[in-house]
Structure formats: C-alpha cells, structure tokens
Amino acid sequence: QAALRPVDRVEVRILVDNVHDDLSSNPENVQNGIPGLMAAGMRVLTGEGICCAHWGFSLLITVHANGSQRTLLLDGGPEPGGLERNAQRLGANLGAVEAVVLSHGHLDHSGGLVRAVELIREAGATGALPCYLHPGMFVGRGMKLPNGQVLPIADVPSPDDFKQAGADPVVTAEPCTLLDDCFFVSGEIPRLTPYERGMPNHMRRDSAGTGWEPDPLIMDERFVAVHVQDKGLIVFSCCSHAGIVNVLTEARRCFPDLPLHVAMGGLHLAGAAIEPIIPDTVRDLAAFDLRWIVPCHCTGWRAVTALVNAFGEQRVAPGGVGKRFVF
To answer: Could you tell me if 204 and 215 are in contact, meaning their C-beta atoms sit under 8 angstroms apart?
Structure first.
C-alpha cells in the first residue's frame, strides 16, 4: 500500500475541457468560469475574454496541507493555444506548479503539455519539475474508421521534448507518490470487469513500424489520487480507457482503508461502440458510494444523463472549462 499523506482540502481548476457552460447553476463547492475570469481582471464580457472549450482535458490541482500548498498539472489539452489562452484569462498560477503528469498517450491530453511546461518556467517556477510519463505512450497510434482506413493520431512529445522545455522527464510504469506524498500516480490498471474493453477501433503501429495492429486496451493510462482528511480519496481519471469501474476498483485496492470520495474526469462512455456499457457502468458505480461524480471531457451526454438520473444532482456535478471545484 502506498503512503499517501492526507491533505486539508483540494482545489481543482479545469483549464481544458470539451464543454463550456458558465450559465448552469452549481453546487456550493463549484464555481463557474466567469467569477474566476473577473477575479483575474476581466471587466467587460467579450468573446475574446472568456475561456475556450476544446476536445481535450487539463486540470490544475492544488492541495492544501498544514498551511502549505502543492500544485500539480495533469495533462495539457490537445494543442498549446487552448491551455495558454484559458490559463492566462483565468489568472492560473502556473508558476506554482511543481510536477506534471501526462495521464496517457493521446493528443487531446498531450498536445499542449510541452507549451504548458514552458509557461510554468516563464511564470517563474524554479528547481526540478518532474514530468511523469509512461514508457508505453510513445508508440504510433491511430483510429480505424468504418471504411477500414486507419487515421493516424499525432505522436506524443518525446521525453527529450519535455526536457528541452524545462521539465525533468520521469519515464516509468510503476506507481509512485510525489510532492511530499500528497499525490499518487497509479501503475497500470488491471482490466477486471467483463464489459470495460477499451476502444475497439484503437490501433497501434506494429513491430515493423509499417502496419497497424489492434490496441483497444491503451495500457499506458494511469490515474492520479489525493487523500482529503476525513473525507477520503479523490480519483482523477482523465479518460478512463480502462473503464471507470476498473479504475475505482484499483484505487480501492491501492488504498483499502480509505473511502472513495470523488471520481473526476473523462469517463469515455461516448461513441456507438462504448455507449452500450453505460447501464453496466452506472449500476456498478453505486457500489463505491461516491460523494461526488464529476464527468468531464469524453464522458458524453448520454452517460452524463444516465448518471444524473441514477445518482441525482446532489452527487453528480458535470465539469466544464474554467470551473473551479473545492473538495
């Protein structure tokens, strides 16, 4: 069992997400983007001044423990401009970031991360900046289309790319804690449920590097977890290619003495091949007795609807770019 230090509270700012929703009401621990924009200096509401939604995901996570703060950046969205724009308009303190994690090797999470490292350095961060990467995320990948054609996916930046930007790459598949044991990065997630089978149309380059072979499981994806004192474990699962039930099962195995408090991130329940498992997923999520489910990014509107129908607005708080969550 990993040693994970309990923290007093966690603040999460969504820097990149598929959805922009600054009108819907929220629970009291969730703030829409506009108050954050105004706090950062916005005085007139303009199209140029608000956050921009994009197909991807990025979280700025700050934990508070015994009067100190530790900050981690999880993923960087699909391209540099979206993260940079939103972080600047929200007044995000990227200079406070002390570690970076890339959850898995897909462009909608990796495309803006090298620029994010540069922005962290430009904002004044000094000293080591570990960037946690899985060795399996650097293989060429693609999506098989209905006509049989494989559409290549842009490669993940290399460890050297991150190093040149100012980070210290840590390439490992092993679980670990970081930043004084305030954060946990999982190892590879076991696939246990009979229905969570990844992405059926996901492909990877074969050993010769010239053809394609099926790669539905995407084994390089990992989750990040934080322990909030007297509440339990917050699990950040950015795309949940392993299946969110498998993710939470592994989190419970890693920390059997802690209740699971929050599951936040992309649940990857969108797409004709995956949507049929929504009922099984919603059914089995009930066993974890989560206080909050925060569906973001690739969850899809059908799954969000099913989650709200099953657990109610008192337990489901959808994400959106610019939103700030406090747990």
So the answer is: yes
Q: What pLDDT does residue 3 have?
A: 86
| CA–CA gap between residue 274 and residue 269 (Å, rounded) | 6
* Dist. CA 245–CA 277, nearest whole Å: 11
| C-beta pairs of 282-288 under 8 Å, 24+ apart in sequence | 282/306, 282/307, 282/310, 284/193, 284/245, 285/244, 285/245, 285/248, 285/310, 285/311, 286/310, 286/311, 288/248, 288/252, 288/260, 288/263
State the residue for tokens 């049929």: 276
pLDDT tens digits, residue range 183-232?
999 999 999 999 999 999 999 999 998 899 999 999 999 999 999 999 99
> Residue 319: helix, strand or coil by DSSP?
coil
Nearest by Cα to 73 from 46, 50, 101, 47: 101
User: Across the chain, how many H-helices and E-strands are there?
Assistant: 8, 19
Is the pLDDT at 240 greater than 70? The verdict is yes
**Token representation of residue 272:** 């004709």
Type and span of the H or E element at 117: helix 113-122
Token pair belonging to 314: 């008192």
3-class secondary-structure state, position 237: coil
Q: Is the Cβ–Cβ distance between 98 and 146 less than 8 Å?
A: no
Q: Determine whether 52 is exposed, middle or buried from the number of CB atoms within 10 Å of its CB (0-12, 13-18, 19+).
A: middle
3-state secondary structure 137-201: HHCCEEEECCCCCEEEECCCCCHHHHHHHCCEEEECCCCEEECCCCEEECCCCCCCCCCCCCCCC
